[in-house]
Specification:
alpha+beta, 27% strand, rod-shaped, disordered C terminus
Protein backbone atom coordinates (compact mmCIF):
# COMPACT_ATOMS: atom_id res chain seq x y z
CA UNK A 1 0.00 0.00 0.00
CA UNK A 2 1.33 3.35 -1.01
CA UNK A 3 1.12 6.20 1.46
CA UNK A 4 0.42 9.76 0.26
CA UNK A 5 2.78 12.39 1.44
CA UNK A 6 1.03 15.46 2.81
CA UNK A 7 -0.87 16.81 5.76
CA UNK A 8 -4.00 15.37 7.25
CA UNK A 9 -7.08 17.44 7.91
CA UNK A 10 -6.40 17.38 11.67
CA UNK A 11 -2.85 18.66 11.17
CA UNK A 12 -4.12 21.50 8.98
CA UNK A 13 -6.76 22.51 11.56
CA UNK A 14 -4.18 22.53 14.35
CA UNK A 15 -1.83 24.67 12.24
CA UNK A 16 -4.62 27.13 11.41
CA UNK A 17 -5.65 27.44 15.09
CA UNK A 18 -2.04 28.07 16.17
CA UNK A 19 -1.59 30.64 13.42
CA UNK A 20 -4.82 32.39 14.42
CA UNK A 21 -3.71 32.55 18.06
CA UNK A 22 -0.37 34.06 17.02
CA UNK A 23 -1.99 36.66 14.75
CA UNK A 24 -4.50 37.63 17.47
CA UNK A 25 -1.68 38.10 20.00
CA UNK A 26 0.28 40.25 17.53
CA UNK A 27 -2.76 42.44 16.80
CA UNK A 28 -3.40 42.87 20.53
CA UNK A 29 0.24 43.87 21.12
CA UNK A 30 0.10 46.48 18.35
CA UNK A 31 -3.16 47.87 19.78
CA UNK A 32 -1.63 48.21 23.23
CA UNK A 33 1.42 49.94 21.72
CA UNK A 34 -0.79 52.48 19.95
CA UNK A 35 -2.74 53.13 23.17
CA UNK A 36 0.47 53.59 25.18
CA UNK A 37 1.85 55.97 22.56
CA UNK A 38 -1.41 57.97 22.62
CA UNK A 39 -1.28 58.31 26.42
CA UNK A 40 2.38 59.37 26.27
CA UNK A 41 1.60 62.01 23.63
CA UNK A 42 -1.31 63.42 25.67
CA UNK A 43 0.80 63.44 28.86
CA UNK A 44 3.56 65.31 27.05
CA UNK A 45 1.03 67.84 25.73
CA UNK A 46 -0.37 68.33 29.25
CA UNK A 47 3.15 68.90 30.60
CA UNK A 48 3.85 71.52 27.92
CA UNK A 49 0.55 73.29 28.59
CA UNK A 50 1.25 73.23 32.35
CA UNK A 51 4.70 74.74 31.83
CA UNK A 52 3.10 77.41 29.66
CA UNK A 53 0.63 78.30 32.42
CA UNK A 54 3.44 78.39 35.01
CA UNK A 55 5.44 80.70 32.76
CA UNK A 56 2.49 83.08 32.60
CA UNK A 57 2.23 83.04 36.40
CA UNK A 58 5.99 83.72 36.68
CA UNK A 59 5.62 86.66 34.33
CA UNK A 60 2.68 87.93 36.37
CA UNK A 61 4.79 87.59 39.54
CA UNK A 62 7.53 89.73 37.99
CA UNK A 63 5.21 92.40 36.51
CA UNK A 64 1.74 93.91 36.90
CA UNK A 65 1.97 94.30 40.66
CA UNK A 66 3.02 90.70 41.26
CA UNK A 67 0.82 87.82 42.35
CA UNK A 68 -1.44 87.27 45.31
CA UNK A 69 -3.15 84.27 46.84
CA UNK A 70 -5.62 83.04 44.24
CA UNK A 71 -7.52 80.04 42.95
CA UNK A 72 -8.52 79.68 39.32
CA UNK A 73 -9.54 77.12 36.73
CA UNK A 74 -10.04 77.13 32.99
CA UNK A 75 -9.11 75.40 29.76
CA UNK A 76 -6.59 75.89 26.99
CA UNK A 77 -9.16 76.78 24.30
CA UNK A 78 -9.21 77.32 21.39
CA UNK A 79 -6.13 75.21 20.60
CA UNK A 80 -6.56 72.52 23.28
CA UNK A 81 -10.12 72.68 24.67
CA UNK A 82 -9.97 69.10 26.01
CA UNK A 83 -7.26 70.07 28.50
CA UNK A 84 -8.28 71.92 31.64
CA UNK A 85 -6.22 73.45 34.42
CA UNK A 86 -6.73 74.41 38.01
CA UNK A 87 -4.25 76.24 40.17
CA UNK A 88 -4.12 77.29 43.77
CA UNK A 89 -1.71 80.01 44.91
CA UNK A 90 -1.22 80.19 48.67
CA UNK A 91 0.85 82.72 50.60
CA UNK A 92 3.69 81.37 52.70
CA UNK A 93 4.69 82.65 56.12
CA UNK A 94 7.44 84.67 54.47
CA UNK A 95 6.39 87.94 52.85
CA UNK A 96 6.27 87.71 49.07
CA UNK A 97 6.68 83.93 48.84
CA UNK A 98 3.84 81.92 47.28
CA UNK A 99 3.32 78.22 46.72
CA UNK A 100 1.71 77.35 43.39
CA UNK A 101 -0.05 74.01 42.85
CA UNK A 102 -1.16 73.49 39.24
CA UNK A 103 -3.06 70.48 37.87
CA UNK A 104 -3.66 69.90 34.15
CA UNK A 105 -6.37 67.33 33.37
CA UNK A 106 -7.66 65.64 30.22
CA UNK A 107 -9.73 62.63 29.28
CA UNK A 108 -13.31 61.54 29.52
CA UNK A 109 -15.38 61.19 32.70
CA UNK A 110 -14.27 57.98 34.36
CA UNK A 111 -10.94 58.03 32.49
CA UNK A 112 -9.42 61.29 33.72
CA UNK A 113 -5.65 61.73 33.54
CA UNK A 114 -3.67 64.55 35.11
CA UNK A 115 -0.22 66.07 35.51
CA UNK A 116 0.58 68.05 38.65
CA UNK A 117 3.09 70.86 39.10
CA UNK A 118 4.27 72.35 42.38
CA UNK A 119 6.51 75.39 42.54
CA UNK A 120 7.26 78.54 44.52
CA UNK A 121 7.10 82.09 43.20
CA UNK A 122 8.49 85.29 44.66
CA UNK A 123 6.62 88.59 44.53
CA UNK A 124 9.54 91.01 44.49
CA UNK A 125 7.34 94.08 44.89
CA UNK A 126 5.93 92.80 48.18
CA UNK A 127 9.40 92.01 49.45
CA UNK A 128 10.68 95.46 48.52
CA UNK A 129 7.67 97.16 50.14
CA UNK A 130 8.06 95.14 53.34
CA UNK A 131 11.76 95.85 53.69
CA UNK A 132 12.95 99.45 53.24
CA UNK A 133 16.50 98.17 53.59
CA UNK A 134 16.00 95.91 50.57
CA UNK A 135 14.88 98.91 48.51
CA UNK A 136 18.00 100.90 49.31
CA UNK A 137 20.39 97.99 48.88
CA UNK A 138 18.89 96.84 45.61
CA UNK A 139 18.98 100.35 44.14
CA UNK A 140 22.55 101.08 45.25
CA UNK A 141 24.34 97.77 44.79
CA UNK A 142 22.11 95.71 42.54
CA UNK A 143 21.85 92.93 45.11
CA UNK A 144 18.97 91.97 47.34
CA UNK A 145 15.71 90.72 45.91
CA UNK A 146 16.09 91.53 42.23
CA UNK A 147 15.02 88.74 39.89
CA UNK A 148 11.92 87.21 38.47
CA UNK A 149 11.40 84.48 41.02
CA UNK A 150 12.39 80.96 41.78
CA UNK A 151 10.55 78.05 40.33
CA UNK A 152 10.85 74.35 40.02
CA UNK A 153 8.36 71.70 39.24
CA UNK A 154 7.63 68.07 39.11
CA UNK A 155 5.06 66.10 37.27
CA UNK A 156 3.40 62.80 37.69
CA UNK A 157 0.45 60.96 36.48
Amino acid sequence: MKRNKGFTLIEMLVAIVLLAIGVAAAIDAVGQEVNTENIAHRTEMAALLGKQELSQLELQAATNGGITADQQQGNFAPDHPNYTYQYNITADNYTGLYQVDLTVQWGTPGQQHSVEFNTWLINNQQIQQASPQANSSSSSSGSGTAGSGASGGGSGI
